[in-house]
Specification:
Layout: E1 2-10, H1 38-55, E2 58-64, E3 68-76, H2 81-99, E4 114-118, H3 121-133, E5 140-142
Antiparallel strand pairs: 1-3, 1-4, 2-3, 2-5
Length: 153
């Protein structure tokens, strides 16, 4: 038996409020936020594919933006969604660390993320369409080879 999930995660510092240019606040003393380049986004997306393949999970859609990612996948229903999200972030972080200087924050990701169970075929189709086609700022998107450009609902 399988379950379908919409997982999202954000990079370190993605949701900090911005400080006025003439002020110094506690937030200004933190390491700078992580923002992916197009190359880093591609590496994250490809690492998600490799992770899913290795774990025998099925990716249905991936989008990586400068400061977040979204994944729609099918995985065994008995896996905890926290574990799914952790696996993707851990392997992508390791791959980024092997290719780029570690960020000043010493982490690429904020803790946690969103883990939404998709209860039926319509919810899966809606999530896939949203991930693939409602992210104009996406630096990298992926769908299975041969998948339709839109998903029927």
């Amino acid at each position: 038996m399988v379950g379908h999930w919409l997982l999202t995660g954000s990079t370190y510092g993605a949701w900090w409020p911005s400080a006025p240019a003439d002020s110094v606040r506690w937030i200004d003393l933190r390491p700078p936020p992580v923002r992916f380049s197009r190359e880093q986004a591609r590496i994250v997306g490809e690492t998600f594919q490799a992770t899913a393949s290795f774990r025998d999970w099925r990716l249905l859609a991936v989008a990586v933006m400068k400061d977040e990612f979204q994944i729609v996948l099918r995985a065994p229903h008995n896996l905890r969604s926290e574990k799914l999200l952790w696996e993707f972030k851990a392997y992508a972080g390791r791959e980024l660390n092997s290719r780029f200087a570690r960020p000043a924050s010493r982490t690429w990701w904020i803790p946690g993320g969103s883990r939404r169970a998709l209860r039926d075929d319509r919810a899966v189709a809606d999530a896939v369409n949203c991930v693939l086609f409602n992210n104009p700022a996406a630096l990298y998107t992926w769908r299975p080879h041969g998948a339709p450009r839109t998903v029927a609902i």
